[in-house]
What we know:
- Helices cover 57% and strands 9% of the residues.
- Strand 5 and strand 6 form a beta hairpin.
- Mean pLDDT is 83; it is low at 6-19 and 359-363.
- By secondary structure, the chain is of the alpha+beta class.
- The strands form two sheets. The protein has a five-stranded antiparallel β-sheet with strand order 2-4-5-6-7, with helices on both faces.
- The chain has ten helices and seven strands.
Amino acid sequence: MPASDPNGRLLHPAPARHDRAPGRLRAFSDALARRLPGSWNAATKDHFAYSPAYAYVMDRLWDHGHAEWGLQDYVDDEATLLDGSGKELLVVLPRPHHRAQFLVAALAPPGIDGVLRTDNAPHGIAVSGDPVRAAADVERRLLPRYRHAVEAVRTPALREAHRLAQKALDDWDAVSDSLCDQQGIPLDEDAYGVRQTQRDAEAWQPFETFLFHGSAAIDHATAALPALSLPASTVDRWTYQLRSLNDALAKGTRIRDNWEPRLVAKLDQPTGPDRWTAFNDTLDERNAEGWHAMTLFIDHAPVLHAIADAERERAEFAAARVAAAQARSTTAVPAPRPGSRLPMPEAPTPPPGPPARSHTPGR
Length: 363
């Protein structure tokens, strides 16, 4: 194969760079965060191009339009992540070829992958450089679609998360006995520990989906439960399971928040093999501490699916009753044509009177 001409035109030229005033994105994003409804934080990432933050945004970007095109074809030295009080997560980027505009797009929450992401993507929008007008556009055009998309995929995402976590537990149960003697003592401490660490890591990833979606799902199930026609024993059992899920959510959230600064500190250390070894060791410790909360999620998450199924069956039954009532009403008298006179109802025939008394002549 002949060598390419080093002086020839590049077949795949490098992405173009934005010509932006430094700090302009940061000032705009800070002003935008202050004007969005609720409480929002703005974190501007410097040296964004091809950084870990860039990889994270590309992995979680919930957009297949302008924002995806801008990230792939243009190099951005800055990008801003906006996180809202309702767990919304947005990214703000300069808009290519429009110096006075920006792109605001959503990042997919945990557990939104595959078909769930492609079929429900709330595409980003272009906004002006005026933070007041931009905040109004984001509130009116992007946030409702983003929240609706999250609600639409919440139940299937939790079902998939529970399946993956349950699989991690089942795989562990299938091999744990073979790693121990008859008294349950590990035959090889190192092999047992490695497999246990793998179990914790496999279960933590779907558990993250529960930590994001669990609060809204539990609140919805708790509010829906009294409206379902269920035996008292079922209501009591499901109420207990919902409380257990709340405990798992609280424990898991506390563990995640406590360990997050430690993980970030490990990543901030100088590069080298020791850096990643320390980071992975810290990650393993975090996962091990969260195992009890993960088992609560595995044991009691089916109650969310059961309540969702009961709600669906109740709605389908109500719809069937409405359809049957409409079918029965098809025998009603059709409406008269325009211009026609309504028929006059016939006078009702009076009921027959009492029989006439017999009359005898001469009397």
